[in-house]
């Protein structure tokens, strides 16, 4: 891999594969062909030795560290909610992957026929309840003032199962599949 170094700042400004035309870089730049172990912007060019030296990024400030921890916990929350909606604790599918799409078709068909879309309403209400919990937990995470506050937010699959699983205390899983809506596989 080739790396273009700006001699005015001693920083790598671009990386390129061999064969890339680097002629647009004129005086004040050099091209090095080497293998780096870290992202190229973590290096500084030493004009005395002619080598790139690894310069790790500075430690984040407390505010930056808190923001990074919040983002990491939020990513984990999102993964857990998605996994919870897709799978039961035993690993079996909680809902068909096409259920959400089929809900709209089912509701429209039932309304056109003058019938109640009650089974679909149960699933929609359940999904809205789980999504509402996701939003509430997201807000709680953003409001955390420190690492302890972040760690105190329970985003576990076990908690979600206790609130929204088959025996959920807040909104039990209606356990309806696409085949249940139409009485067959859709």
Structural commentary:
- The protein has 186 residues and is α+β, with helices and mostly antiparallel strands.
- The protein is 45% helix and 13% strand.
- It has helices spanning 62-86, 99-112, 118-143, 147-151, 157-164, 178-182, and strands at 2-6, 11-16, 29-33, 43-46, 51-54.
- The strands form two sheets. Strands 2-1-3 form a three-stranded antiparallel beta sheet, with no helix packed on it. A two-stranded antiparallel ribbon has the order 4-5.
- α1 (62-86) packs antiparallel against α3 (118-143) and α2 crosses α3 (118-143).
- The longest helix is centred in the last third of the chain and has 26 residues, at 118-143.
- The chain is elongated, with a radius of gyration of 27 Å.
- The two termini are 53 Å apart.
- The model has no long low-confidence stretch (mean pLDDT 85).
Q: Overall mean pLDDT score?
A: 85
- The string of secondary-structure elements, in order, is EEEEEHHHHHH
Instruction: Give start-end ranges of low-pLDDT stretches.
Output: none
Q: Alpha-carbon distance between the termini? A: 53 Å
List how many beta strands DSSP finds. 5
Biggest sheet: strand arrangement? 2-1-3
Main sheet characteristics: 3 strands, antiparallel
Q: Output the radius of gyration.
A: 27 Å
Class from helix and strand fractions: alpha+beta
- Bulk shape: elongated
Q: Bin the helical content.
A: 40-55%
- Structure annotation, total helices: 6
Give the strand content. Answer: 5-15%
